[in-house]
């Protein structure tokens, strides 16, 4: 994996000039995208400097063998009709005991190891940052098992009620100690996919208390209609603030709950969500895998909000059906690359 430049304390140095037009294509890497994106969150009430909760390091658990890991990640999970109806109504669902504690420990260790390899001086400069890695499954055999997991992919296909599902990308979402909020958003803004059959599995690699910044949802799914006409602003926090104000005015239900060890959430691309600041001394490590229905096309006009999408969907032009080797069918299981 290519080494990132030394972490910088001020994200303003990442950009030559402000992006004044969201219709521009993104011309920097995925980490730069996240450095920009978190500046769009209103952190007025998210001070973390003097209030970090001291958490112990996650317990060390005996690692399963690779074959045992593969078996656990391919074992079918049975959804109930109530699960499916809840997802369709609210746009998200949280499911407990998707993974065992030792499997989660493997995931956390692998992601943190990749971060140390990818970012120079990671242990010194990681505080207050939102760090991200993507396409890990191409280089790391363990992460590959999590990303191509038929256990996860079948849940996603069943929730969307589609027969075949492809991978968009994997993403390590690591909110370091002291990092502020993630702004309110829905993923339809970010993925250049001409479908609403898109779902993300959000897999915390540790138990995640409220103080660590778990994913927070607005429900039901239809609340996106309240804010769909708000103009996205790529240079300040106004978009995030306007959404918060409308949700308060409309008395939208906000679900902010801790995640138990092994609990995973699944959210639709129209589901509005956010995450609070990480007010603990530990890294909030998450693997987020996004999948979409087979047969989907790239939208006609991708924008800068879609980031480095050509990296995730190579050799595919706007308007074309997605079928690249980097977007394999994950369910049903076929010969994967």
Structural commentary:
With 337 residues, the chain is α+β, with helices and mostly antiparallel strands. It has a single domain (24-43, 66-331), classed as Jelly Rolls, CATH 2.60.120. 26% of the residues lie in helices and 18% in strands. It has ten helices and eleven strands. The protein has helices at 30-37, 66-74, 81-90, 101-118, 122-125, 141-147, 150-160, 224-227, 238-249, 309-312; strands at 92-95, 130-134, 165-175, 182-185, 198-204, 215-219, 253-256, 264-268, 273-275, 284-293, 329-331. The strands form two sheets. Strands 1, 2, 3, 5, 8, 10 and 11 form a seven-stranded antiparallel beta sheet that branches. A four-stranded antiparallel beta sheet has the order 4-9-6-7, covered by helices on one side. It is globular and about 50 Å long. The two termini are 19 Å apart.
CATH H-tier superfamily: q2cbj1_9rhob like domain
CATH architecture: Sandwich
What is the percentage of strand-forming residues? 15-25%
Number of strands: 11
Q: Could you give a short account of the major beta sheet?
A: 7 strands, antiparallel
> Roughly how many Å apart are the termini?
19 Å
Share of residues in helices: 25-40%
Number of helices: 10
Shape: globular
């Amino acid at each position: 994996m290519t080494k990132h430049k030394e972490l910088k304390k001020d994200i303003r140095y990442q950009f030559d000039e402000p992006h004044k037009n969201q219709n521009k294509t993104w011309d920097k890497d995925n980490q730069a995208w996240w450095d920009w994106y978190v500046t769009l969150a209103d952190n007025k009430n998210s001070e973390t400097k003097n209030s970090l909760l001291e958490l112990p390091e996650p317990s060390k658990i005996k690692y399963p063998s690779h074959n045992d890991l593969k078996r656990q990640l391919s074992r079918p999970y049975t959804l109930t009709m109530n699960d499916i109806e809840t997802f369709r109504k609210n746009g998200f669902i949280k499911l407990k005991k998707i993974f065992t504690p030792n499997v989660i420990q493997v995931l956390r260790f692998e992601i943190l190891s990749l971060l140390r390899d990818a970012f120079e001086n990671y242990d010194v400069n990681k505080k207050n940052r939102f760090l991200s890695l993507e396409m890990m499954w191409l280089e790391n055999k363990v992460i590959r098992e999590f990303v191509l997991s038929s256990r996860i992919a079948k849940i996603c296909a069943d929730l969307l009620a589609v027969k075949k599902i492809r991978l968009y990308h994997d993403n390590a979402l690591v909110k370091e100690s002291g990092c502020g909020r993630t702004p309110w958003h829905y993923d339809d803004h970010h993925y250049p996919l001409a479908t609403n059959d898109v779902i993300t599995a959000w897999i915390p690699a540790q138990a995640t208390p409220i103080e660590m910044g778990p994913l927070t949802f607005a429900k039901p799914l239809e609340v996106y209609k309240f804010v769909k006409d708000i103009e996205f602003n790529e240079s300040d926090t106004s978009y995030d603030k306007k959404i918060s104000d409308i949700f308060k005015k409309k008395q939208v239900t906000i679900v902010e709950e801790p995640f138990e060890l092994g609990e995973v959430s699944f959210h639709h691309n129209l589901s509005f969500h956010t995450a609070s600041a990480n007010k603990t001394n530990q890294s909030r490590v998450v693997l987020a895998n996004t999948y979409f229905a087979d047969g989907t096309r790239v939208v006609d006009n991708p924008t800068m909000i879609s980031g480095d999408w050509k990296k995730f969907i190579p050799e595919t032009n706007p308007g074309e059906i997605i079928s690249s080797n980097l977007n394999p069918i994950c369910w049903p299981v076929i010969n994967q690359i």
